[in-house]
Amino acid sequence: MSVRHVVVTGATGFVGSAVLRRLAGAGPGVAVRALSRTPSTAAGAGNGVRWVDADLADADSLRGVCDGAHAILSLASYIGPDEARCETVNSAGTAALVAEARRAGVERIVQLSTCAVYGPGPHRGQDVGELVPAPVSPASRSRLAGEAPVLDAGGLVLRAGLVLGRGDRWVVPALVDAFRRVPAGWGGGEGRASFVDVGDLARLITAFALGEGTPAARASGILHAHHPDPVRNGDLMDALADHGVLPARPAEDWPWRRCLDALAARPGWVSERQFTLLARDHWYRSDAAWRLAGIEPGPGPLARLGTAAPWYRERGGLLPG
Q: What is the model's pLDDT at position 1?
């Protein structure tokens, strides 16, 4: 039986580590090359996983990492405020990686991007092609730029919504920080957003990486990658309260202007832009990705929250880092 070699960047990250676990359990027909700046300290060696010293910020370190590979999963990104680092990792680094993959003749390139490239919204059920990207942060601008070399190479870009699960340092911690500063229902809790559990996202990415002779193997261009059913903000906050991550929502709902004023009046790390992304309509059609991958999306991210609840209770509303 021939072995398919899969190269993974971002393998120590939130999504990357979940993908790595799935690939490591895919059986002897799959071998994984996990790229890391610190391979000696990376966890998860064995089970067909080999760690390689490489850094997207250093193009020379990428030489040869794709040789003999069937697929490359570009899952690394920097989402902090440093604009120069965003450009170095998300844009230039991705371009260098794709150039190396093309030189090595890699058949399959899959990149994880974000629906944040669409900008502030509101967005209500649009599919790819029905929105013009309008990113507003250095991270989303550079991630959009990083999509171009993947698309030029005939690869697949997966724009994900908000990702939940153990290891999430941004979404639920942001909700905790925001709720501490705005202790009420946010505009009736009616805002809906696209979410996905990290394990379900890992299933989807793996299906596109390993699918042979299926629509998944031929998929290219851009797809949305999250659960098809958007999550209502009030339902998410109630589910987090049920798991002891948040207090129960007060019966009182505040209008949107009062929410923004309260957020600005109390110190915290969540910005108005981030609060708007979490609390108002930002949801996108994603049924095409699951159909092409040939897998079911599962019961949805709220049904998966229980396994991540201890992680969230431990972190609270800490600043990501």
A: 53
Residue whose tokens read 């790819």: 128
Q: Which strand ranges, in their side-by-side order, compose the sheet holding 71-74?
A: 49-53, 30-36, 4-9, 71-74, 108-114, 156-160, 221-224
Q: Alpha-carbon distance 112 to 18, whole Å?
A: 13
The answer for residues whose C-beta is within 8 angstroms of residue 173's C-beta and 6 or more apart is 312, 315, 316, 317, 318, 319, 320
> Residue 294: which region, alpha, beta or left (left: phi > 0; alpha: psi -120 to 50)?
left
Contact 50, 31 (CB under 8 A): yes
As given in the structure block, the two tokens for residue 70 are 């069937």
Task: Give the residue ranges of the chain where pLDDT is below 70.
Answer: 1, 39-47, 212-213, 321
**Residues of the chain by 3-state class (helix, strand, coil), percent to 5:** 45, 20, 35
pTM tops 0.90, yes or no: yes
d(CA 214, CA 232): 34
Q: What is the pLDDT of residue 80?
A: 87
Compute CA 199 distance to the chain's CA centroid, rounded to the nearest angstrom: 11
Find out whether 226 and 284 touch, Cβ atoms under 8 Å.
Answer: yes
Average pLDDT in the chain: 93
What token pair was written down for 30? Answer: 């799959």
Could you give the angle at the alpha carbon of 37 between the alpha carbons of 206 and 195, nearest 5°? 40
Strand pairing report for 4-9 and 71-74: parallel
CA angle (73 as vertex; 72, 78 as ends), nearest 5: 130
